[in-house]
Task: structure prediction
Amino acid sequence: MPTVQTILFENVEIDVSNNKQLFIHPIHRVVAEEFPVPLSFAVLSCAYDLAPGRYSCKHTMFADDRKTELISFTHEAVALDQAGGGMGFRTTFENVQLPGPGRYWIRTELSGGVKADDIVLRVEGVKKGAPKLNLRA
Result:
């Protein structure tokens, strides 16, 4: 049975020593003092146990109602020649305006009828000057 997993990252950089992608800081929550707030982030979706065929992927960000589309991107189809294979899709969104606190949904849709997933990004507001938590070691 095909499986799709999606993770959000703060950024994607290239390691100059080996030319590989580095996914920086997984995120599931954003805290802001003022709205609207611009948000830049990367979406990584990996699909596993796929049947042979051509697959495209669409990443879409929705407001809390899951109907109001804020932004989307569709990747060109990629061919998979053997059964049981997998592939990954990365989308980078820049300066997406989030109008206010709430839940925002990132939907991953894979072509070919493969069930994908919706993940939530919580956006919270704090008062200006409120103490900030430093969760990094």
The longest strand covers residues 37-50. The chain is about 0% helix and 65% strand. The mean pLDDT is 89. The radius of gyration is 17 Å.
